[in-house]
Amino acid sequence: MAAPLAERLRPQSLDELVGQEHLTGQGSILRKAIQQGKIPSMILWGPPGVGKTTIANIIAHTLNVPFYTLSAISAGVKEVREVIEKAKLQPESILFIDEIHRFNKGQQDALLGAVEKGTITLIGATTENPSFEVNAALLSRCLVYVLKPLDETALKKLLTLAIEKDVVLSKRKITFKETAALLNISGGDARKLLNLLELVADGVPGNESISVTDDLVMDIAQKRIALYDKSGEQHYDIISAFIKSIRGSDPNAAVYWLARMIEGGEDVKFIARRLVILASEDIGNANPNALLLANATFEAVNKIGYPESRIILSQCTTYLASSPKSNAAYLAIDAALTAVKQFGDLPVPMHIRNAPTKLMKNLDYGKGYQYAHDYQKNFSPQEYLPTEVKGTAFYNPGKNAREEELRKWLKELWKDKYGY
Prior knowledge:
By secondary structure, this protein is α/β, with parallel strands linked by helices. The chain has 20 helices and seven strands. The radius of gyration is 28 Å and the shape is globular.
């Protein structure tokens, strides 16, 4: 059985690589390092299908040095240490770790000494921001190269290469009458583009000539796209079902969709991040502990990793789903942002400006400011908003027990000013 088209067309040299010219084009920093035979440890950061693994393979092929590959999905500290021990006997060894953001802190720490001493040269690939997903100690020992989604020119070049150079497709008479659907569905992902092209070719029987149109592509994609697009429509449908189940206070549905994501190989840190956002967006001050638990969940998942993190995610999911709900904080910031866009940069009222210098004091900066703690209930009913938006209630406490207490307290302080 033939390898997938994307694998058959994988470049073997920088000259064959399509896209990422800012990193690998003539005179670029990475090309110079490869040509000089001395590359630094690096993190390749970019979306799926833009050449991270390909660049790592090209480096190994060009330098002709010992090259080890691990996937953070299946490898752990044991496998990392085994590679390091082998590398001690093989100078200039390269270790490529795909999806390095899936390594927890302990697994990343296992790499530190070997990278620092030069026992291995690390190449990590990640789709996530390494500032958040790679611990600071390891990140400081690596250069970060940012890869970009492939543009229309690069994608069209790949299509041409596929029908002219591929050992399978070059035997078929394939022409492109339209390419918009291929390009739009691929989203700058070379692997997705080539996989879809192969599906289209396989969908036309025998050795018939193929005229690729948008209608043909869409028809085949709608029937079979789920076979190769794990991060596509189904991914977004399931995370949507997960969020809406928590928002709808159904812990049973929420934990089911959580299980679907985990079983499908979803990044547990991605799930944890969504829980942190939801804790503020959909619960907020109705239960401030929700954000504390969600943040603690993210930290714990980052440290523990899969599979144990599934238990932590389940605890947080069921708690958030069972919590009272409020989107008041979400509505408040959106209302305030709307006002900022509408009124522009309104001046800060003079009495609440900072006055660190004598000149500013002479210009009445801070004049008349009433220090709240000098007054009864630690409150003074002075104006804090610019005149143009004075009296605007951006925050409207939600209809739940905790926020009703906040509403009562604010009304007691501000009387009828904000309509509480």
